[in-house]
Design a protein that fits this description.
- The structure holds two protein chains of two kinds.
- Chain A is mainly alpha-helical.
- In chain A, 60% of the residues lie in helices and 5% in strands.
- Chain A is built from 24 helices and seven strands.
- In chain A, the strands form three sheets. A three-stranded antiparallel beta sheet of chain A has the order 1-2-3.
- In chain A, strand 2 and strand 3 form a beta hairpin.
- Helix content of chain B is 27%, strand content 6%.
- Chain B starts with a helix and ends in a 10-residue tail after the last strand.
- Classes of the chains: A mainly alpha, B mainly alpha.
- Chains A and B meet through strand 3, helix 3, helix 4, helix 5 and helix 6 of A and helix 1, helix 2 and strand 1 of B.
Amino acid sequence: MLQGFLRQSVEVSEFGDVVSLAHPCWKLDLPRQWVSGAPDLEKFLHRRLTFSQVASPRTETCNLLRLLEAQGCLTFMDDVESYSLQEIRPLFTAIRNEWYGIYYRHPVWNLLRQGSLSKNGLVTWLIYNYFLSRSAGNSSARFATRSRNPAFGRAFYRETLEEYSHFSDYYFVRHAQLNLPDAAVDRYVQLPASLAFCQQMLRMAETDWLAYILIAFFQESTIQFSDDCRTFYNEVENSYGIKHLFDPWWKHIELDIEFTHAKKLEIIFESDERVSTSEVIRSLTSAWIAFRFLVLALDQIIIEGQRDTNLILRSPIADRRLDPATNALVKNSTHLTQSLQLPAMHTAHDVHAAMSQRQLIGTPEPGRDTTSADVKFLRLDLVRSIYRALSYAETGEEVVALGRIAECAFESLSPWEQGELGNDAQPTTAEAMALANFVCEFATHPMEFCFVIHSLAGTCTDWSPLRNEKCTATLAHFLSGRELDAKCCDGLITKQLQLNEHLRNWRIKNPSVVTSDFFQGSRLGS
Amino acid sequence: MTKHVDKRAEAEAQGSALPATETPNDADLSNPRKISELAKLLQLPKGTTATALVMASSTVVR
């Protein structure tokens, strides 16, 4: 595959006297007569010549090509052995600019500009930003301490300190018109895609240093749109009558400019460190999944905005009461139409039983293709998470329970699957990764972890590696011995509702199938 | 894969278009929202129209 052709993401069309180049972010209309006067250029635009093969004495042609190259309009090779970080930078610039086109053409932005999104939608978006900011310190610290590239990880010790408090310094939703206490924002149960993004960053921080840096760079580089951003904030403030709401956000942007975070990340790409092309593809796939969660979060913000015009937060469960009229999390994750209070419960197993009895735990999905790559990924990732949980077990009882569960799960794998456990497989959909990450992040809390995988075992009976009786009995026994106070019971109910959302999202008819056109680009919407 | 710098040198040696005219240092040629300014700055052929198809909004907070 040759390098330097015009990417597929740039659509070329001819109308009358104009040759039009449409990139996801912009359109260039060139005089047809001028294009016709440069046969090599014409061939380049028809993808018959590469960028370097265009021989032209005309300065204007040179300048056009130079602009197209800088904007990331060229293809890259995927059949070379490796890429240096210097070479990855222009590749990612091409991808990044395509992603910006997708991200910023999302309908949520105009709804916000015009004030057409309900107050509920507006608040959902504001809180989403709070969580994006809050996760930066988490993932940065994870990268600093756990990255498989310690040299780059070191740089994130300082980055973590620069980032960790920004959510509380700048992103609480403090405005008289909105009347949202800080505690309500802090307790808010994140949108599934918002949580999925934060957890994907944590996974990448540990297992995929390049993907983590690429997404951090993607985020920080949006500072280049600060002029548009200022305009946007003014429009939203005017549309909703919330003057000065974004003043602290703007201060944060100024801080980012002052700290030159984007530039600091860019310096990493000056390294001559080489990465195998298969690793590059893997990292771009991980990064794409994270990007996809950002877009899915915008979809979910619109859904929240359409569902309720009045403000209904996604709140954690309190006093075992599940009320769809006052809690958007309950509304979104259960079949309930009326308020329900679960009975008093004493153990984690009681919570599981009470919720199962009332169909508040997802029902088994028949006919799932158990040979799909998603299922293969989930089976292996779940087993890895069980071993991870075992590594964090503190009491003898936890070690024995998680050890037995690990044993059951491992033995349910085929020899081939057992051999694959050492490899980090990837799913075919972003939604499968969201589900896997959700489970994995509980591994440091054995009781919660066991609660979640017990539900999963009962729900995904056709593919779960935990579906045998010994495993279920071990989980039930362990959870029966975990006595809980009222607050812990509420916490488990909340987690079950979140799991319901992730399971449902994974099962939707049109999940986000991982793209693989990083090197050639793809047409918008394809 | 050939490095970008090498590709330029190679192209130049072959008498092709690159490198092009100098661009002021402060111009970020990769910014997709600056396409109109860049088209003017780079003096694309007379009659060229550059139009941004999307307007950026909020930064992706980190």
